[in-house]
Design brief:
This protein is mainly β and 346 residues long. The protein contains two helices and 24 strands. The longest helix is centred in the N-terminal third of the chain and has 32 residues, at 2-33. The radius of gyration is 25 Å and the shape is globular.
Amino acid sequence: MNRNRIRIQISNAALLLVFIISIISCSQGSKKSGKTGETEKAGITDSIALRDLSRHDFLYAGEAKVQDMYILKNGKIAWEYKGPRDQGYMGEISDAVLMNNGNILFAHQRGITLITPEREVLWHYDTPEGYETHTAQPIGENYVVFVQNGNPAQVFVVNIKNGETVKSFEVPVKNPKNSHGHFRHARLTKDGTYLIAHMDLGKVIEYDIDGNQLWSMDTPKIWSAEPLENGNILLCGNDRWIREVNKEGDVVWDFKLDDYPQYNMTKPQIATRLENGNTIINDWFSDWGDTLDIKKPPIQAIEVTPDKEVVWIVQSWEKPNLGPSTTIQVLNENRIPENKHFGPFK
């Protein structure tokens, strides 16, 4: 009788031990999967740490009905620019660059503006009626190069100290009457040439200072083309496929958004390669056509490794609300954006 009781007690203790181990294992599994209540609410299965805004200090801007820009440091807004609210729609911000001296150059459809950290306007260009400007880049502290959509579409190099246009040339478009669809992104290369993403032509074309075409590649649905230090080009467009290609047109790296449906990214605009080899991809939310579901907000940007692992997610529509995303410039790097030249201008 006593032996039977001992056996029963041992058996019950063993069952209790198995039950406790199973609970601990389930708990640890949940932590590893990151499926907390907060992440499930956001529609993401990754850990909350992935959405930590303090991963980078960065300049943030996007195409929206308001001209808002932000600089975030240590995960908090350290500086902000709120565009005019009393003058109606002033044009969407498609491009923004924080220079090494703290000034910010931004293109906003109806003009291009250079401001100080105190928001003082140092230089401004008004886009003529019927034309648009969506991309601009500083050359040193004296020049700005930009593309102007319209008929004719043109590249301009302007001396911002005296307002003189020191160089200009026309560039081709497919539909001259649809200026809004011509260009969004262009960047100078390390060789002093200009790489332009022709949206309506579905091409990327490299130009010299005299407007001669040096290289081109068919790129349907292209939005941005970023020249890389290794001589390759990082392409991003509405086909939801980000690609690094060489001058022969070979794909040497790619990232297909359709392979990551959990992130619900639908409108990639600009991809940027970081010094650590990772790539940041912006995803645009339209103030004009999309409906924001704050319970399941869209991703604004992600950072992926060369092995295509997602290591950072920007998803900030509350506290702070960063708004739509078009461009992110990571600031904790050694780059000087204005350290470029275009032909003899530097």
